[in-house]
Please model this.
Amino acid sequence: MQSVLVVDDDPFIRKLVATTLEDVGEFELHEAADGLEALEIAQRERPTLVFLDVDMPRLDGIDACRRLREDPTTGRTTIVMLTAAHGDDVERRAEDAGADLFLTKPFSPLDLLRLVDRLGSAGGPGARRS
Amino acid sequence: MAVHSEAELAEEIERLRAELARREREAADKELQLERYAADLRETFKQERARSQELSRSYMATVRALSNAVEARDAYTGKHAERVAAYGMAVARALGLSAESPEIEFGFLLHDIGKLAIPDAILYKPSALTEEERALMARHPVLGADIVRGIDFLGGAGQVVRHHHERWDGQGYPDGLRGEEIPITARVFAVADVLDALTTDRPYRPASTMPIAREIIIRESGSHFDPRVVEAFASIPLETLERIGAEIR
Model:
């Protein structure tokens, strides 16, 4: 079963991502409310896929992304950044930090599902943005 | 009670304003996100509906094609299956059977599909059949039920195929079921089948008129046919039956 970590300080978004995924398949879902918690859970659970919000307290998504990449235990996980539409150079910074894919908020659940499908069929973890 | 200076109060108000603005932003974001979900949901629903309608149409087209394959071999019955299906649906409606599911009509259209497995030499033999030939001919409902068995979307249609020659009094075939042992769809079909046979010219006799055919069927209530089905059948206006007979030639 694929292990997925959803990181967002807004429980509403975490719940939304989780329910959307639950409807289409078997995932082992983990949630974190900020970057530090995300690192902790990622090291323990070794998720193959991480949804990472950008603006979060304690440790933001960009820095969390960079540290996930630097850590050999989590370095190969697929990271999807959840970015706000008005985010100026967020995508560039996230890419520099090692993010694989982007999902713009408000995100489309169909896009989310297509993305997961694509990752599932295109070699899973580490699959790069096309 | 704590005493606040004006500056403190102004600061507090400013803080509350900022907090309010932040919450408003959050609420607006949530609303946008939910609208996105609703939009996707509507889109998905629309697509699913279109797909399911398309699927229903292809089911019906497939069943008609199979039914036509049976008809094409049998020159004298013409559009028998289509007509008998129309009569049968009229009876089913009069009886209050749910006409929502297309399975009933599928069964009516495919009732004789087992005849595909009967050799031409027997199916078109101009003289009387031998005992053996008659026995093979009488297996067409079983052969037909075997043919359609694996097709899930036909649902209960296979029951009509297998039991359309059963009789209410148990004298029919292939299983000699009696009364309510016979599936209701097959009991309905039996009336429609005989009605069409009676009102169609045959090499050995001319067609009966609709009123006479109806009388013959009513007379067979309780022996050949389910009395409840005959009652429903008898309640259908003659013109309705005649229209079906005239339109599907």
The two ends of chain A are 25 Å apart (CA to CA). Confidence is low (pLDDT under 50) at residues 123-130 of chain A. The first helix of chain A runs from residue 11 to 22.
